[in-house]
Design goal:
Layout (H helix, E strand, L loop, with lengths): L1 E2 L14 H11 L1 H18 L3 E5 L6 H12 L3 E3 H10 L3 H8 L1 H13 L1 E2 L4 E3 L8 H8 L2 E7 L2 H10 L14 H15 L2 E4 L6 H16 L6 E3 L17 H7 L8 E3 L8 H5 L6 H12 L7 H11 L12 E5 L2 E5 L9 H5 L2 H8 L5 E7 L3 H11 L3 H4 L2 E8 L5 H9 L5 E6 L3 H12 L2 H11 L1 E5 L5 H20 L9 E6 L4 H11 L4 E8 L4 H8 L1 E3 L21 H8 L4 H14 L1 E3 L2 H10 E5 L2 H15 L5 H13 L6 E5 L7 H7 L9 H9 L9 H10 L5 E3 L3 H16 L1
Parallel strand pairs: 1-4, 2-5, 2-6, 3-5, 6-7, 11-21, 12-13, 12-15, 13-14, 14-22, 16-17, 16-21, 17-20
Antiparallel strand pairs: 8-9, 10-11, 18-19
Helix pairs in contact: 1-2, 3-10, 5-6, 6-7, 11-16, 13-14, 13-22, 17-19, 19-32, 22-23, 28-29, 28-30
């Protein structure tokens, strides 16, 4: 067995000579001594007995970066190619490959790795080590595997400049590019940490990124969450214990009624890191972005990649997941309706159930409560019904929706998506009542405590108040910008505007978070329908619900007066002033209104502009776009299109979020297309729309759901808190007991 501890890079001060240098410094310059000692101790405590194992394709710079990292940590540096393989074989790696061929080479390389042992070292793997499972399992146990992720295009350029035209796995009929792409699956299987490496980034910079990533990996306390209403001064850990990602996914709403946000903000990507994702697929972009937002102590990178692959695999009808389509002029549509339930909610709710199932303790059952104004309900029901059977036994969903406040097809869809662990309840009220009722249930400690003690069941939320719901939305906004760059529409770094039909403020907030992470979004255009409380607020700074009644519109998903996620945005621009946020939203709850301070309004108006669209203008936009392009907008996208036309200045591209498929709103669409007689049967309406051969075609998942369900049954209750609590307790008794 190989034990390698002796190879060290040259250093000005080595560990062996440290004591004499320290003695001189301690006597002559105590401050300098303290700084050097702190730096030395920090570096050595970072590594301990573990290895830092660098992994990546040939040409990623593993050897060079490994030496720099080893020098910074004053520890042994081991290059598998030079120090293990060539020493063992007494010949170069290229000669060995030529001598025995690809398959036997992998086996011999793996055997050498299995005999290798080291600790407290920086190890640079060969590009093909990860393709030998047993060898990688052996080496992974000894430390932290860091994946140097360099784009295939950059690697090919580097290999060409190095005059390398043969790598392990390259065989007749396979291109170098295909071989490099094939290898990625093996790298993704083994890494603990990913470090993005741009084309022109110096090795010194990458080495620092490696050390920063290892520090993050070892310290989950760097990524805690606070409430938007928390006042942290003078509070002990017992009064305000740390909350981590896994906690906030499960809890949803903070105990003080606020919403969870990351205490240190969101991670930032460099321009080079974003540019490295231009050629990436949607799922690859999602993996990179979400790894930075979710600490590996909560969900390891390999598990997160598995979850993302499940969420955005066969469930989506378009291979691009969230394609960007040119509409007209400088306007582009971000199509967010290719998921199983035909709305943007699928992006979060195909992912969140798996995150939730991974994070919850195994000792308790969970009931997910959801309030929906239309699209969330079917998306939640579908997402949680796709869990593994063992998870469905301990996780159930109850969806509350306004009985007469959603489209007939939306209602049929929610009824049709009911499964053994997922139910829908119609409420004889509007969405605001449903949402407020659920918030009150979560903060009713007597009721939640009773459910826990009596039935061993805890409540959780899957609405956009749950932090995990926002993260997948950040991904598609970032991906849309990268797609525009990839298509040559705009050079990287040039700004875009976005326009989003907005009700609960979650979608537009996620776009704002994407900007904070480095995507150059210039203006956020908030589009409302007749329920234009947000438009008035953004223009005046006054959020006023007094005398307002919710109006039922064709764009029902934004028929909302209380925008929950607005609280997160205000907390952010108020420099995390939890006391001010508490004051504002307590006043809204008790008096029906609040007014922003002047300085905050000025900040808000630097980011946001707003407009609203009437019902007549919505239908007219649908007709006009279809007449000129053959493309059918849904009612929400039409609202955004109308507002974008009014408010954009046409100096840069604008992306309009197309948040739902028009099939869900067939009566309104048929009316917009000026069809005289409209059959009231939802399935007949879809068949009529399909006869138009429009773009995009009828949504496959929606059509199948309606074929299966017809007019299925669901429960209906009064707009009364005790009635909702009765339904919750009854469901728990039936499912968990």
């Amino acid at each position: 067995m190989f034990h390698i501890f002796q190879y060290r890079p040259l250093r000005l001060i080595t560990q062996n000579s440290l004591s004499s240098v320290c003695l001189k410094l301690m006597l002559s310059r105590p401050v300098a001594f303290a700084q050097i000692w702190k730096s030395w101790f920090s570096s050595h405590s970072l590594l301990g007995k573990k290895n830092i194992i660098l992994m990546g394709p040939p040409g990623a710079g593993k050897t060079t970066i490994g030496r720099i990292v080893g020098q910074k940590l004053d520890c042994p540096v081991i290059d598998i190619d030079d120090d293990v393989l060539e020493t063992t074989w007494n010949m170069s790696v290229s000669e060995k490959l030529k001598d025995i061929g690809y398959e036997e080479f992998l086996e011999e390389e793996g055997k050498a790795l299995l005999k290798f042992s080291a600790s407290g070292s920086v190890i640079s793997l060969s590009g093909s080590n990860p393709m030998h499972a047993a060898g990688m399992q052996h080496i992974k146990k000894t430390g932290i595997v860091v994946y140097l992720d360099v784009s295939t295009a950059v690697i090919m350029g580097r290999l060409k400049s190095m005059q390398v035209d043969r790598i392990v796995g390259l065989s007749p009929g396979n291109s170098l590019k295909d071989t490099l792409q094939f290898r990625k699956q093996f790298y993704k299987r083994w890494y603990d940490i990913r470090v993005l490496c741009g084309e022109d980034v110096a090795a010194e910079v990458v080495a620092e990124k490696v050390l920063d990533a290892v520090r993050r990996y070892q310290d989950s306390d760097l990524e805690t969450f606070i409430s938007t209403r928390s006042s942290r001064s003078g509070r002990s850990m017992e009064e305000d214990p740390r909350k981590y990602f896994s906690d906030v996914v499960v809890q949803g709403l903070a105990p003080d009624g606020g919403l969870f946000v990351p205490e240190r903000g969101l991670p930032k990507f460099t321009a080079e890191e974003w540019q490295g994702l231009i050629e990436a697929t949607y799922t690859e972009r999602a993996e990179v972005i979400l790894e930075k937002c979710i600490h590996p102590a909560d969900i390891p990178a390999s598990k997160l990649a598995e979850i993302i692959g499940t969420a955005y695999g066969e469930n989506f009808s378009c291979s691009k997941i969230a394609p960007v389509r040119h509409l007209a002029g400088n306007q582009f549509l971000l199509e967010l309706f290719h998921g199983p339930t035909a709305s943007f909610k699928d992006f979060a709710l195909q992912l969140v159930p798996h995150l939730f199932a991974y994070c919850i303790p195994r000792s308790c059952n969970y009931l997910i409560l959801v309030a929906t104004s239309g699209d969330t309900g079917s998306a939640v029901l579908d997402g949680f019904s796709r869990l593994h059977d063992t998870d469905k036994q301990r996780i159930a969903v109850m969806n509350f929706f306004p009985e007469d406040g959603v489209s007939p097809i939306q209602k049929s869809q929610m009824i049709g998506c009911q499964k053994e662990n997922a139910w829908s309840v119609g409420v004889r009220s509007d969405f605001d009542f449903c949402q407020t009722a659920i918030k009150q249930i979560f903060t009713n400690s007597d009721f939640t405590g009773f459910l826990t003690v009596e039935y061993g069941t805890a409540l959780a939320a899957a609405n956009s108040i749950n932090w995990a719901r926002l993260l997948p939305q950040i991904v598609y906004h970032a991906s849309a910008y990268l797609d525009l760059v990839h298509q040559g529409i705009t050079p990287f770094g040039s700004p875009i505007d976005i326009c989003i039909p907005t009700g609960n403020f979650g979608n537009i907030l996620a776009a704002f978070y994407a900007k904070m992470m480095g995507i150059p979004i210039r203006k956020f255009i908030c589009a409302s329908n007749d329920n234009n409380v947000l438009t008035d607020f953004i223009r005046t700074g006054v959020y006023d619900l007094r005398g307002r009644k919710l109006i039922s519109t064709f764009s029902s998903a934004v028929d909302i007066l209380k925008s929950s996620n607005l609280e997160r945005y205000l907390h952010l621009i108020a420099n995390e002033d939890g006391q001010l946020v508490t004051q504002l939203f307590n006043q809204l709850e008790n008096q029906g209104h609040f007014q922003l301070p002047k300085d905050l309004l000025e900040k808000l108006q630097q980011d946001l502009v707003a407009g609203w669209c009437s019902e007549e203008d919505c239908l007219a936009a649908i007709h006009s776009v279809y007449s000129t392009t053959g493309y059918i907008l849904d009612t929400h996208t039409a609202v955004a299109k109308v507002v974008a036309d009014r408010l954009q200045d046409r100096t840069c591209p604008i992306i309009i979020s197309s948040t739902a498929h028009y099939s869900k709103f067939a009566p309104a669409i048929l009316r917009a297309l000026r069809i005289a007689e409209i059959n009231q049967n939802p399935l007949s309406q879809l068949h009529l729309l399909s006869s138009y051969s429009a773009l995009p075609p009828i949504h496959w998942g929606l059509l199948e759901t309606l074929k299966k369900t017809g007019n299925g049954d669901h429960q209906v209750c009064a707009a009364d808190m005790s009635a909702l609590m009765y339904h919750i307790e009854t469901l728990i008794q039936n499912h968990f007991i």
